[in-house]
Amino acid sequence: MENSIYQVYEDEIQSLEEEIKILTEKxxxxxxxxxFFSDEEILMSIKSFQREFQGESKxxxxxxxxxxxxxxxxxxxxxxxxxxxxxxxxHSKKTVEKTGSRTIQRHRLSGNCHSLPFQLEFQLLExxxxxxxxxxxxxxxxxxxxxxxxxxxxxxSSTEEHGNLLQFFRSLSSYAEWxxxxxxxxxxxxxxxxxxxxxxxxxxxxxxxxxxxKLSGFELMIVWKxxxxxxxxxxxxxxxxxxxxxxxxxxxxxxxxxxxxCFRSMLLLFGIETAVENLIKVVGLKK
Length: 287
Description:
With 287 residues, this protein is an alpha+beta fold. It has helices at 2-31, 39-56, 66-84, 153-162, 165-192, 246-251, 253-270, 272-285, and strands spanning 35-38, 86-99, 102-113, 116-128, 133-143, 197-198, 207-211, 219-228, 234-243.
C-alpha cells in the first residue's frame, strides 16, 4: 500500500516536470517577452503555492514537508537581506538567444542597499555540454546616482569592466553600511546639539559644520568621506577644516593650525563618535 502511494507521487512529479518543460519551451520560443516580478507578486505566488499544496495534500500524508521547506527558504532569504542590507525590489529577464547548447538572457535588477538605490543590467551567457554548464556575465551596466555617490564611480567602472557581480554586492554592502552609519551619526549630533551642529546639505551630505552662536565668524567643518578603491575596499576618511576670524587667528594661530592634526589623533585614540563629540563640546564652551 505504501509503495503504491509513493508511485502515485512519482507519477505526478514526472507529469508536472513534463508539463513545465513544454510550457517553458513554448514561452521561450514563442513569447520572447520580458518577465517582471515585484515583491508583491512573489509573495502572492508563494501564498498561492501554499494554498494549492495544502489543498492537494488533504487526506494523505506527504513524504516531505514542502511547506516547512518553503518557510525555511523564506527565513534564509530574510536573514541574508538583513545581514547584507541588500533588498531586491524588482527583476526582469528576457531570453535574447537560444541555439542548441548556448543561451543568452538579459537581466535587469533594482533594489536598495541600506538607503542607497541601485540598478543592474547584464547579459548572462550559458553554455551547456555533457559534463557541466558554464556561465559568463557580459555587458554589465551599474546605475547609481553618481552625483551623490561620486566616490564609487571608479569602483563601478572597474566592476563593469570585469563583470564581477559578487565583488560589487560585497563592496556595496560595506560602502552602504558606512554611508548609513554616517547618516545616523549626523542625525544623532544634530538632535543632541541643535544650536551648534549645522547640516548645510542635510543628512545625506558628507560634512557637518560646528558653530557657536555667541562667537561670530568662527566655525569648524568636519568632512566625512567614504573612500572605496577599485578593488572594492571601503573605509571612512575624516578631516577637519577651520574658519576663524582674523583677530582670533592672530592671537591663537598655533592652536588653530594644529586643530586638524589634533582631530586626526583623537580619531585614532577614541574613534569617530567620541572625537566629533569632543569637538562639539569645545565649540560650545567658547564665548
